[in-house]
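Friendly challenge for the regulars: who can give me the structure tokens for this chain first? No prize, just bragging rights.
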Amino acid sequence: MNKQQRTWIVLSTIKPNRMVKIDTYEYDSLADDILKDKISYQSLIEIFNDKIYWKWFKSCYISQTPQT
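First reply, four minutes later:
Bragging rights claimed.
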């Protein structure tokens, strides 16, 4: 697991100031922006607090990565 992935995991555990719900059609494009570091930490906290999106993102971009 690299530093960026560990950061995502930590951000997913922080309580957000506001709740957001990510629509399924936005999953891939939002993931692209996250991978390119186009999203602020505060926004990531809100995004990752959508537990359905977090579960999808984690399974696609964290769990699939070989451990180092």
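The radius of gyration is 11 Å. The CA atoms of residues 38 and 54 lie 17 Å apart. Your move, everyone else.
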